[in-house]
Design brief:
Number of helices: 3
Order of helices and strands: EEEEHEEEHH
Shape: globular
Helix content: 10-25%
Number of domains: 1
């Protein structure tokens, strides 16, 4: 999936899928002070005005988890009907051996299998669709 070119709308966001060699995906439990408090999701956030999606992926992972990543490919897109938001899902390679979660944004770091993500009672809506896109991209050799 090819992301649109700039300029970006303020209502664009990114979510980031990073998988360990053991097949587990990096998810977070959001802090109690952010929207959708204590829900489980892939890390991500807003695309700032004039910022590319790739830059937003890198910045958000630094801000939320103190992590360095390399964005590999945009694999998913979801346009919310109920609000002005388009969410772009990126597959990325995690380069940081240790994570430093920002407690203002992240309550807990989770490493979950695909099945654990699909069954988790606190996971945000549409997480399963992004996960399926990540799995398809990996199966295709991304």
């Amino acid at each position: 999936m090819t992301p649109p070119q700039a300029p970006r709308r303020h209502g664009d966001g990114v979510v980031v899928g990073c998988r360990r060699d053991d097949g587990r995906w990096l998810l977070i439990r959001r802090s109690a002070t952010v929207p959708a408090p204590l829900r489980v999701c892939f890390p991500g956030g807003w695309v700032d005005g004039g910022e590319s999606q790739e830059a937003a992926v890198i910045r958000e992972m630094r801000e939320e988890l103190g992590a360095e990543v390399v964005p590999l490919r945009c694999v998913w897109c979801h346009r919310f009907r109920e609000r002005q938001l388009t969410l772009w899902g990126w597959l990325a390679r995690l380069c940081s051996p240790h994570l430093r979660p920002n407690p203002q944004e992240v309550h807990e770091v989770l490493w979950l299998t695909g099945d654990e993500i699909r069954r988790h009672p606190d996971v945000l809506p549409h997480t399963d669709a992004f996960l399926a896109a990540l799995e398809r991209a990996l199966a295709a050799g991304a």
